[in-house]
Recover the amino acids of this structure.
């Protein structure tokens, strides 16, 4: 199982997504069953324009077959225009952020914030960890395996 938090900071966007995809021989699988995707709702999209808005993470849990996965992309939709931020090598499409999913474990990937329009000095994606919030979210899933694993996602090449 894969668990993560996600928030999106935007100007006009009505929806943001985060996508993890299973790797086959080091490249992203093209099979829909190998994709794990979270979509923002009202709770976890917040505005650059509203100084009172604050980052709230929504937590997501997905069943995932054992194997190697990687963070693939973030997307934002505004005024019917799709913007995509990929987390791969621009020349080879190879992933920068692979991680292993083992059977019978809950894999916490961290809390991701996607800045759809980053300021000059900002990186478009931040990763943090809040194990207490993740544990509170998982209380709604009493039959999960007890073993929890935190996977660090490295955005560097």
């Amino acid at each position: 199982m894969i668990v993560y938090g996600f928030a999106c900071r935007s100007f006009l966007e009505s929806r943001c997504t985060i996508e993890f995809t299973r790797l086959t021989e080091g490249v992203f699988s093209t099979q829909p069953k190998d994709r794990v995707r979270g979509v923002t709702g009202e709770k976890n999209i917040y505005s650059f324009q509203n100084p009172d808005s604050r980052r709230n993470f929504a937590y997501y849990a997905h069943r995932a077959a054992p194997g190697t996965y990687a963070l693939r992309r973030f997307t934002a939709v505004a005024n019917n225009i799709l913007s995509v931020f990929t987390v791969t090598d621009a020349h080879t499409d190879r992933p920068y952020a692979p991680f292993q999913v083992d059977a019978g474990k809950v894999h916490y990937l961290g809390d991701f914030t996607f800045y759809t329009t980053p300021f000059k000095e900002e990186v478009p994606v931040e990763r943090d960890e809040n194990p207490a919030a993740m544990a509170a979210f998982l209380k709604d899933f009493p039959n999960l395996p007890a073993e929890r694993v935190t996977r660090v996602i490295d955005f560097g090449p």
